[in-house]
Amino acid sequence: MGAGGPRRGVGPPDGGWGWAVLGACFVVTGFAYGFPKAVSVFFRALMRDFGAGYSDTAWVSSIMLAMLYGTGPVSSILVTRFGCRPVMLAGGLLASAGMVLASFATRLLEVYLTAGVLTGLGLALNFQPSLIMLGLYFERRRPLANGLAAAGSPVFLSVLSPLGQQLLEHFGWRGGFLLLGGLLLHCCACGAVMRPPPGPGPPPRGAGARDLAGDSAGEADAEAEGEGLRVREAPPGGRTRRRLLDVAVCADRAFVVYAVTKFLMALGLFVPAILLVNYAKDAGVPDADAAFLLSIVGFVDIVARPACGALAGLARLRPRVPYLFSLALLANGLTDLSSARARSYGALVAFCIAFGLSYGMVGALQFEVLMATVGAPRFPSALGLVLLVEAVAVLIGPPSAGRLVDALKNYEIIFYLAGSEVALAGIFMAVATNCCLRRSKDTPSGPGTEGEASDTEEAEAEGDPEPLPAPKEPGSLEALEVLSPRVRSPEPEVEGEPRPAPESV
To answer: How far apart (Å, rounded) are the C-alpha atoms in residues 407 and 270?
Structure first.
């Protein structure tokens, strides 16, 4: 269906070209979350060539993740200003150019600036617009769409890590970076898919200049809303003003609850997955079996995300998605707490299955909850601000856990801390949603509040004169309407008022 074709009803299409958008979002999400982790297979080669330590080379992935999360407000501003498709095309070129330039690096600092900063920024400029466009195409099936798109993360992580190892063995780290840079050009193809949702059809025959102008303005507004989600305000001068970053969303109590939940969640959610392999080796598990534990988490995660998305889309559970999200966080935290003393390989496998299931539920529901909380018009700004908050937590949680492991030589305390933080996030989300937000909705207004408001509105309607229309530009359709031969319908006469004389042209 073309962009100007007929549209079925009002609202997102929930299908059609939206499935192509969903496929592109699947690929972009896989690159955004899987690529920084898959690059770690090249760290030993970088350590050997540059004479650096593991912590120095690990900064490449850390910078990528910091750019992915920390540049959320920048991405929101660019999407609002230029639209989703141009931002994603530019982001794909930046991500590819970063890896290509990194293949010619002679110092580790150059790898930081190219593979870390440029590629991380390019992935960020692809990830956020893809989620925004997904919300524009899906409403009734949005939980399922979010779950399917989120499944790209474990799928690409399972594919990119072995692929990077093969490229390293056959072409070295420089050739591997060069080929991965070419692979990232697929983000440009995904960006080309992101056209705005279809607008209303063409006007019927016999429409006058005013109808044509109104329909053209409506199509332009619909396309601009789908392309850039611009927030418009009408000041007295008649010109519209675009708000590039809607920071007023921070005054929304539901958004504040979600942001605090995400901060607490990010402090401990990623810690067990990062320390799992070393924890298993410290317990006496062979290296091959320890590495297979992450594969178990990935396989369970792949199944859990679409299944949880489909479950959240049920009519009975759709209004209670925040509680389902808090339940997933609580299950993840309790899994960490109960497995802190797991030493046998069977206990670690059971932990990986439970962790992968709860982790997949969290990944499938996190953005669905935000979309349902703030709505599509404010989602770009809200997503950018939430990613910035999450970036701060990611830079605090995992590095602090690593320092505690080096200092205490004990993994149990780390699992207890991480599980407590994630469980606290789930409890806070459930309690705040049930008490604070629900109480604010159920609180009755004070006596006379509605009457005063209605009286004020009536007084404004009676006392304030209608604003004068903006001057017409020469040659515009609205200016040409004055010269059009259309016959206007006579206005009804009001008793006691003389009928105005006809205007002469």
So the answer is: 20
Of 402, 253, 421, 405, the C-alpha closest to 333 is: 421
CA-wise closest residue to 165 among 275, 40, 63, 276: 40
* Distance between CA atoms of residues 77 and 86, nearest Å: 13
Q: Are 421 and 413 contacting, i.e. CB atoms less than 8 angstroms apart? A: no
The CA-atom distances, in angstroms, between 243 and each of 269, 368, 375, 385, 469 are 34, 24, 16, 15, 23
Alpha-carbon gap, residue 23 to 116, rounded angstroms: 26
Please check whether residue 45 is in contact with residue 60, taking contact to mean a CB–CB distance below 8 angstroms: no
3-state secondary structure of 63: helix
What 8-state DSSP symbol labels residue 375?
Answer: -
Whole-number CA gyration radius for the chain: 27
Asked if residue 278 has pLDDT above 90, the reply is: no
Provide the mean pLDDT of the chain: 77
**Predicted pLDDT at 466:** 45
- The answer, yes or no, to whether residue 456 has pLDDT greater than 70, is no
DSSP state of 489: P
Residue 379: name the closest of 141, 135, 126 by CA. 135
Q: And the tokens for 192? A: 């080309």
Query: How many CB atoms lie under 10 A from the CB of residue 282?
Result: 15
Q: Model confidence over 43-85: pLDDT tens digits?
A: 888 888 888 876 678 788 878 888 888 888 888 888 888 888 9
DSSP calls for 199-246: ---PPPTT--HHHHHHHHHHHHHHHHHHHH--EEE--TTS--EEESS-
Q: How far apart are CA 30 and CA 358, in angstroms?
A: 19
pLDDT in tens, 117-160: 999 999 999 998 998 888 888 888 888 888 899 888 888 888 88
Start-to-end C-alpha separation, the chain: 45
